[in-house]
Amino acid sequence: MRIVMLGTGHATVTKCYNTCYAYEEDGRSFLVDAGGGNGILSQLEKAGLELADMEGMFITHAHTDHVLGAVWIIRMVAASMHRGQRSRPFTVYANEKVMRVLGTIADMCLPAPYLKQFGEPLRFVTLQHGDEFDVLSMRWTAFDIESEKEPQMGYRAVLANGTVIGCTGDEPAHAVNDPYLTGVDWLLTEAFCLSEDEETFHPHAKNHSTVKEAAASAQRLGCKRVLLYHTEDATLPTRRQAYTAEARTAYDGEIFVPDDLETIEV
């Protein structure tokens, strides 16, 4: 199993793509979020991931930088189904707000023959807090992160080998979600900027955290590894080194600060 980081930036970055990634295993893949536009198609192409090999996608919430790329994924998958090029299902997992957004955009913007694929074989599963499902060789549990700004889901995924991955969406780890995140092997979480740049990027006003705060959460939760993303793009040339150094001041485990299109073995 590997994570292919398709994008690592926040909503308005221009020097990298919005944060989204795919799990890839034995030639099959599953997408988590899709960025803010059809740039997702370019990122998938650069990463060597084919939509024909994709099982579906999990969408954390309905903000533009997470859900609009999903519209393009749905469009391309529905088109391949309409043309008879794909018959096996593609499943979208998300909360009710995301489903309403996707349904509205699709109804207004996609051709009628594509819409006929909705339901079967293009499936939409509306998730509630605590719902479980299986994708690839992973058992997923979706949970409501109890965001104050937008209905949003994180997840806990258990691999066949027992490795546990926890994702907080694009907000800090909230204490209410500790049962899903405590002691995970990998914590995937946002880190908007360095502490010294807080006055420039204002992470707290956007319900985000500094690198040190994200690292401190991983330390509190006892996570073995932390993967930091959803960052600003003004410091890309030095981001990995600087973010890792700051995270180390608050966290004892392994630290990963990936670039776009980087692959991480889990």
TrEMBL record:
Transmembrane segments: none annotated. One of its GO terms (molecular function) is 3'-tRNA processing endoribonuclease activity. Residues 17-204 form the Metallo-beta-lactamase domain. Keywords: Endonuclease, Hydrolase, Nuclease. The keyword Nuclease applies. The keyword Ion transport does not apply. This is Metal-dependent hydrolase, beta-lactamase superfamily III. The lineage of its organism: Bacteria, Bacillati, Actinomycetota, Coriobacteriia, Eggerthellales.
